[in-house]
Specification:
single chain; alpha+beta; Beta-Lactamase; Helix Hairpins; Heat Shock Protein 90; 10 helices; 18% strand
């Protein structure tokens, strides 16, 4: 159960909220403790100052200056003040009144942890007589004509501060529980929104793994998941295309291999059986065997070249290449076919550049372009081979008067196993395109349906 994202996402979400809540609560409690302590000290200080002034006035009235009649010391209203403030009031130091007329509870100076004789207001903690808990207290001096007579102590239990903290914690706990409920609902909804499209992707992946590429998952997920769904759909479509291309390739290669092998086998059998006795016929059979063997060699070479290019294990050499000489070699290869089919075969050399490149591979590219042109050009048509140099590039163009290529099919034409005529393996243009990229160039295509095509190899001049 815990391996499911439906469970793990909400749990991680809630764990993060709990951790953040714990850290926030700890910081809030610390800050509130400091605030409550400081506020309590301020309140006690104000009360101690006021009560000390009241007591000092009573003492000064009880001990008049010379020439004044002494007054009877009033009884100090300690209980009333304690009820009014909610705090405890103590006295430490000398007793200016006889007996307990002051009404104050006096602390033992020796057991009081303050220096009341300093005449300064002090904050401290102590345990009063008969009490079991500590008190937070503020002592304020009582002066008689500038002399420190004692100190008034106003104190409150430390538990009063703790009670305020506990009350804050309880409120935070209630808020945390409500927040967790809301977060749990939000996490469940979020997990559902995330997991639902992922499950659809998982089912679609199972279908693709089983060989069924006809999947339509749409785009139901948010953000990156929706983008993933789109890319998955594109991937499934490309896999379907690749499988179709693979089937076409196998059928094409099987046909291309079977045709020369059948011819070779027939002529070899005839020669072995002595059916062909005429020397001219024997020589003709051997020429056919040689031509078909060369055809097989070219086919295997194309397949190996494509495999090397796909695996990025293809290397090129660098040498000085006379482009005019190379063009002559490529041109001469097809002159006989052009004469036989009455094709108007022309060559046009505008410049005679020499470049640093792999001459054999450049010749292979031009040969593939010419071979493709002769395949699509009908008898009596026209094919032109051009060489030019412009803007730091060398351009070799092959123009034909074939049927032309629709715009939507031009990109597919350079993919492996796609043939413009429906025959052959469809490797020539794919290899030419990859080789041109390996040489630092490219192949541009301009075509118009019904008027022919122009393939142009563009290579860097340096």
């Amino acid at each position: 159960m815990f391996n499911s994202l439906r469970v793990r996402i909400p749990l991680l979400f809630l764990a993060g909220i709990l951790l953040a809540g714990a850290v926030t609560t700890t910081i809030a409690v610390r800050l509130f403790q400091s605030f409550a302590h400081d506020r309590a000290v301020v309140e006690l200080t104000h009360e101690a100052n006021g009560i000390a002034r009241l007591y000092a006035n009573a003492v000064n009235d009880a001990f008049p200056r010379e020439g004044e009649e002494p007054r009877r010391a009033p009884r100090f209203a300690r209980k009333d003040l304690e009820r009014a403030t909610g705090d405890r009031i103590y006295y430490v130091g000398g007793v200016p009144f006889p007996g307990e007329e002051s009404g104050l509870r006096e602390l033992n100076p020796r057991k009081t942890p303050i220096d009341w004789t300093s005449g300064k207001s002090l904050t401290f903690e102590f345990t009063p007589p008969g009490a079991k808990r500590k008190f937070l207290a503020v002592a304020n001096p009582v002066l008689l004509r500038g002399q420190v007579l004692g100190a008034i102590i106003v104190a409150q239990p430390k538990t009063d501060v703790r009670d305020q903290v506990f009350q804050l914690v309880r409120r935070l706990a209630v808020a945390a529980i409500l927040g967790l409920l809301v977060a749990a609902i939000a996490a469940w909804y979020l997990a559902r929104r995330l997991v639902k499209p992922l499950l659809a992707l998982s089912r679609a992946a199972d279908q693709v793994a089983a060989g069924s590429y006809d999947v339509d998952i749409g785009r139901s997920g948010p953000g990156e998941i929706g983008h993933l769904e789109e890319r998955f759909g594109d991937m499934a479509q490309r896999l379907a295309e690749a499988e179709a291309l693979e089937r076409n390739f196998l059928m094409s290669v099987s046909h291309e291999l079977r045709t020369p092998l059948t011819a070779i086998r027939g002529h070899v059998a005839a020669l072995l059986e002595g059916v062909v006795e005429d020397p001219d016929l024997r020589e003709h059979s051997l020429e056919i065997v040689e031509a078909e063997a060369q055809r097989l060699e070219r086919l295997v070479g194309d397949i190996l070249d494509l495999a090397k290019l796909d695996a990025h294990r293809f290397t090129v050499t660098t040498e000085e290449v006379d482009m005019e000489t190379l063009l002559d070699r490529a041109y001469e290869t097809f002159t006989e076919e052009a004469r036989r089919r009455s094709i108007d075969y022309e060559r046009e050399v505008r410049q005679r550049p020499v470049i640093n490149s792999d001459g054999d591979r450049v010749l292979q590219i031009v040969g593939n372009l010419l071979s493709n042109a002769f395949k699509v050009t009908p008898d009596g048509g026209r094919i032109q081979l051009q060489l030019a140099q412009a803007n730091g590039t060398v351009r070799v163009a092959v123009e034909d008067t074939g049927p032309g290529i629709p715009a939507e099919a031009q990109e597919l034409l350079f993919r492996p196993f796609v043939s413009a005529t429906g025959g052959g393996t469809g490797l020539g243009l794919a290899i030419a395109k990859e080789l041109s990229s390996a040489l630092g160039g490219r192949i541009d295509l301009e075509s118009e349906v019904g008027r022919g095509s122009r393939f142009e190899l563009i290579l860097p001049a340096r």
